[in-house]
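Appendix B. One record, verbatim.
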Amino acid sequence: MVELKNVTKKFGNFTAVDNLTLTIPQGEFFGFLGPNGAGKTTTIKMVVGLFTPTSGVIIVNGYDVLIHPIEAKQSIGYVPDIPFLYEKLTGREFFYFIGGLFRISKTVLHDRIAELIDHFEIGSWIDKRTEDYSQGMKQRITIAAALLHHPKTIIIDEPLIGLDPRSAKIVRETLHLQSKNGVSILMSTHSLAFAEELCDRIGIINNGRLVLCDTREQLQIHKARYDGKFESVFLEMTKQ
């Protein structure tokens, strides 16, 4: 579960996120949309503890991210917009490194890695250095690593960047399954179709403010007011 209460983030005189209030309950797949510079990534970085809010409160799975940052982070699986891997490590070594950070026992970690290798279809690459991976393979490894510790919440920023159709299919199916299993997901994406296909609820942020936040079903009402296309709703909501 993720709760943002009147959250604002300023960089000097610039307000990147402006008084944002949002709750994502357990098991909800929330799509976070907006144009470049709208405040999506800034919001995500505050939720995962990389940025400190100028004001407001962020609660992740019962933990205030400022008061109990370690406990909050232990409950999160975070996938940034640009996959970060230690390029001289193999995929398997990277998994063991991440598992160590979350203090997963070696026996449990060994079995969990085997599960993820099979699910993400990375067996032929797992013992190669990650510097040799394609963009899609790096993304698969990054997402798999974020799931090692069975997080209660997944925070994912632009999951489909640079993915081939097979990798995109695996990512879609994985996120859908995690949501169905009770994991709350906050996903930032520029893919309107992806959000409309998978998300239970969609929020649109523009100039740091949440300008729309509705369920997928309610979105149909908004679409009917225009030409039946989500793109038209998005463009109208994000006009300068």
